[in-house]
Each structure stands twice: as structure tokens, then as C-alpha cells.
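Input.
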Amino acid sequence: MPAHGRRRAATGLRVFAASRPAPLTEVRLYVPLPGAGHATTAAVLAEMLFAGRSRLRDRLDAIGGHLFAVAGADSLVVSGNALAAHTRELFTLLAGALREKVRSRPELHLARARIADGFRLARSRPELVVHQALSTIRYAGHPYGQPPPEPTVVDAVTEHDVIELWESLRPADATLCVVASAPVEQTLDLAAETFAEWRGSARPAPEEVPVPPPRPGPVTLVHRDSADRVLLRWGLDVVGPAHPELPAVELTHTALGGSYSCRLVETLRQRHGWAYTPSTSLLHQRRASLLVVSADVPTEAAEAVLDLVRDELRGLAENPVRGEELERARGKTLGAHALSLRSAAHVADVMLTLAEHDLELDAVERRVRKLHAVRESDMESVARRLFTPERATEVVLGDAVLLYAKLSAFYPVVHRSME
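Output.
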């Protein structure tokens, strides 16, 4: 585990630093958006933050560096790196981009066009459509559940909107994560010094938008013309990175669908041949954590797979993960944690996820110790409370003409358009 530390700068900026010998210094900056309703403007700002600045681009090229920004539902994240000998210059360039007003009409038009094209492309990819449908249903009324905007909404974003959002970003809400070869204290001192002039606005802290409680309901059927496969997704609310039960949740995830020897692969692929890569994934956001079960199957198998996955979820409580299966899941999960720290870039990503929950890198060490200590009774307890199919948000993406009558004969089904 790299040496690490944290500090809150005079401007309020939280800085997390780790020391690890590496040719590159990695940076990640997390800035929450000022409340709900800014995701589209934030996407445009992310495109413009480092675009159209030839001097910035030339200076980054000179230090072997790059910076880019990505907008999420409730945050803006900047990522990048540069040669380790040029850490100060990397910090200076990032701080300067945050301080200098974004103002470029040609870049605004290009940014809006790129974003609109990206959203159109996303709507052509069924795996993204079904994921968005799951998020929209589970997080209805919350920024996490907002669907991609229509191109007309993107085109309506003005230069004034972008500047106003840029001005609202402030260091008092932000978190900077750095992995460098220098000693931790030296990196913390350098960050505090170079980011001291970024002050942002004096606005209040962003309002917290509460995540709505889960309201499992009928199966949601999303129509897709001429679909030759059906994409099924189940979303289950689980605990986050700071919760003491997360190790048991991680082991359950691995045993259910997080490895090639998991229960879903054995049932859906090896026994029935219906799905090549059924899987589960853990998605941690700042205010919510979701376990997603995924299975892509032939249209004629959709009804049976719905039943089988529900049975597998019930089976986690009725036939808990224990003995050799538990040890196999433990080994794979511990290996995944080791791989998550295999490079400076991976360490920076882990630091950012932890920092969003006010945790440091030593949380990984604590989680590893807890993974070793998880007992069979812990697995059963978590399964009974968190993994029951009655808690799941269920979404089916496919040809509704072929699926609706078949599914509605056995389950409550509602049809939903994602157009």
C-alpha cells in the first residue's frame, strides 16, 4: 500500500496524496455540481474546459501530459497525468484552466455537436439504452435517473450558461487526488501552493438531492425494433464503500456473477446455453450503490431467464455461499483488490472513489482484512436482506411485439419508451 495522506487547503480544497515510484504523476479532481439540473451544461463545460486553448495544449505536450474532463449526473471529474519531473507544471496548468474563464463561441458549437453526436450514438447501443432505462426507473426524479437530453436541449446551452456554471465551481466543495513519486508531504505542499489562487464563487455549498428509496414494481419492458436478443437487467440497492457490510456484499457479487465460476454462468451458460456472459457489477456513486445483474439472451428464453435469475437471487439466502464456494469467491475478490492498485493510474481512480465517501487508501487495507474475516453467517445475513428478488428493479429491452404477451401472462409488465 503506497504511503498516503490528506490535507484541507486554505481555500477548502481537500487534497489526497499517495507516494508511489512511477514515471507519471496522476491527478483526479472531483467537483460536485451546484444542485440538480446542470448535467447538460456540465457536459458542454467538460468539452470546453481544455479545448480551444492552444497554449495549454502545447505546454501539456511539452511535459508529456494530458488533461480531460467528464461530466456525471452530479459532478465534474478532471483526469490526467504528466511526466513525474513536471508535477508542478501539471498542477499549474490544471489550476489555470479552472481559473481562466471559458469563453469561445467556436468551441461552444463544436462541444454541443460532439455531445449531441455522443448521445445519438449511445441510443444506438442496446447495452447503454437498457442501463439508462434501469437508472431512469430506479432513480426517478433524481439526477442519477435523468435520461440523456435531446439534441435540441444540448443546442440550447448558451455561452452564458457555461460561464455561469464554471463560475459556480469552487474549491471548498472539490477533492483533488494525486499519485506522485515525491514524498506525500511534498505533494500536499505543492498542491496547496499551486491551487491557492483558484477560489471560485462564494455561493453556498451544493444542495444535497436525496436519493429516492427503492420502489420495486412490475417488470419494465422497453421496446427495440427488430431486436434479435433480449437484454435483461436487475438493479438491487446495496451498501456503499464506507459500510462495514460491503466485504460480504462484494463476496456475494463475486459468487453470483463476478467470475467465470459463478452461479449465473453455471446456470445460464453451462446448464442451459442461454447467455454467454451473464454477470453482476457493483456501481458506487456518491449517494447510492447498486448491484446490477446482466443477462443477454435469445428472445425465446426471456421468460425462463427471468425465472431463473429470480431463483438464483432467492438461492443466495436458501443456499448460502459457504465452504469451498466462499473461499473461491474470497480469493477472486482479494485478487481484484490487488489488481486495482497495480499502477499509479489505478491507485488514483481508487483514491477518487474512496475520497467521494471521505475515505483514504487505508480503507482498502481495512476492507481486505474484513474480506478475510467474512463468515458464512455474514453471507446469509446479507443475502436475506439485500439480494431478494422482491427488492429488484427489473428491466427488459427487446422486441415488445414478441415479448409483451409472453411476459405479461406470468408477470405484471409495463411498457416504457426510451425514445
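The chain has a mean pLDDT of 92.
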